[in-house]
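Q: I'm writing a short explainer about Phosphotransferase for a general audience and would like to include a description of its predicted shape. Could you first generate the structure from this sequence?
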Amino acid sequence: MEHILGSDWTITPAGGSTGEAYYAQTEGKRLFLKRNSSPFLAVLSAEGIVPKLVWTKRLENGDVITAQEWLEGRELNPEEMKHPRVAALLSKIHHSTELLDMLMRLGKQPLTPTEILKDIKENQNVLNQIDPRIEIHHAINFLESHVDEVGHDVHVVCHCDTNHNNWLLSSSDQLYLIDWDNAMVADPALDLGMLLYSYIPVESWQDWLKEYGTEPKEDLYNRMVWYAVSQALSFIQWHQMRGEYDESSIRMRKLKNMMNVHNIY
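A: Of course. Here's the predicted structure. Afterward I'll give you a sentence or two in plain language.
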């Protein structure tokens, strides 16, 4: 990275799952750099959903480096996920035709419940020796028994990981949703389910969804349950495959809570 910016820049890893993100700073200037970020980033920046894209450079080896504003700010805490502005920003994302058009042009096809279930079952076949817990198999049986009931013909851009630490509030009070590496075209219930189950008390769901801009209905609730269980399983499997068993246990507790609420046994 140093040869791109010059020797007067200090560059440090920014962490994250890919190991391809960096912070760069020099006198009075700070940037967030990423290697091989999706072209989708430009549209997200233009829509004000992520910090401003400053420049993009293609290297001789074909890699693409993007530079964004490095903002003073903090991630939201779990309690702040109840705020109406979180619902408003997620609604803006889900209703953006520009985001959807770009992701479709990049080759993303709508993700179906059948495809999600297939991936989960294939992964679990590999992981059964690591985690044979009965709750995992009850959850998969629940997904199988309801997979034909949750089809939906409205597809939007979904972030797919609406965890509170992906929501950035800048020092100028601007809210962003960052880390779009796993974005998909899918049922909006995919994002809504995990967010509501993780952060919003059930008695507040109706009000939160009205802030989001939709009328709560039984069909939406049923789809949210299905996607919340499927996402919890996917994250458990992902962390297990990486040997991150503490993170896997945290996701497992969330899954058990969902299963208890909906009597999934």
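A: For your explainer, you could say: The radius of gyration is 19 Å.
Q: Perfect, that's easy to follow.
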